[in-house]
Design brief:
By secondary structure, the protein is α+β, with helices and mostly antiparallel strands. It has two domains: about 150 residues, Electron Transport, Fmn-binding Protein, Chain A (Pnp Oxidase, Chain A); about 40 residues, no CATH class. The protein has six helices and nine strands; from the N terminus they run H-H-E-E-E-E-H-E-E-H-H-H-E-E-E. The mean pLDDT is about 95.
């Protein structure tokens, strides 16, 4: 398959240093709100990159649930591959790609567990099937068939009824940003890239060549 002629000219927006402001979280929230308003499919979906003890990177898509001055939060199974990798190497990278807006946001930083109270508070807001699924899926482990998941879900439903508690192996992570990069596609591949880098508690803003 030859994809060498598959290309697009990016011409929907611009990003200069003045428009970026001085607070990366505020710019991120503005861009995320724009993606939601534009009805971009799953605007809260982000790629999470981690590195295992063998030095090999891996990625997967997770959903951001909230972001504030403390960091960006997502929830998952602590015993999954990403959970084991974050336990061994608590640094990660996130990437949002809003194709329709020709925008990318990249964030890098250290990762910490959210408190049990935060995880509990979010867990109870999930649909019942999702709460049962947290009990049913031994995430990232090899299973013999889908029937294993269905059987586990049935057992969890019989055990907990309508009020399954949060499993100890499931909860939140918070990525605490050390760098943010905002990418806006531009014509002729002369894209706009603005990076914020944390330096002694202050965000340093700089333009990167595309």
């Amino acid at each position: 398959m030859d994809l060498s002629n598959l290309r697009k000219s990016y011409e929907s927006g611009t990003l200069d240093e003045a428009d970026a402001g001085n607070a990366p979280l505020e710019l991120f929230q503005r861009w995320l709100n724009h993606a939601v308003a534009a009805k971009v499919p799953e605007p809260n979906a982000m790629t999470l990159a981690t590195v295992g003890m063998d030095g090999r990177p891996s990625t997967r898509v997770v959903l951001i649930k909230y972001a504030d001055e403390r960091g960006l939060v997502f929830f998952t199974n602590y015993e999954s591959r990403k959970g084991h990798e974050l336990a061994a190497n608590p640094y990660a990278a996130l990437q949002f790609h809003w194709v329709e807006l020709e925008r990318v946001v990249r964030i890098e930083g250290r990762v910490e567990l959210t408190s049990a109270e935060e995880s509990d508070a979010y867990f109870v807001t999930r649909p019942l099937d999702s709460r049962l699924g947290a009990w049913a899926s031994p995430q990232s482990q090899v299973i013999s068939s889908r029937a294993v998941l269905l059987a586990n879900a049935a057992k969890a439903s019989a055990r907990f009824g309508l009020n399954p508690p949060r499993p100890d192996h499931w909860g939140g992570y918070r990525l605490v940003p050390e760098t943010w990069e905002f990418w806006q596609g531009r014509k002729s591949r002369l894209h706009d890239r603005v990076r914020f880098r944390l330096d002694s508690g202050t965000w340093r803003k700089e333009r990167l060549a595309p």
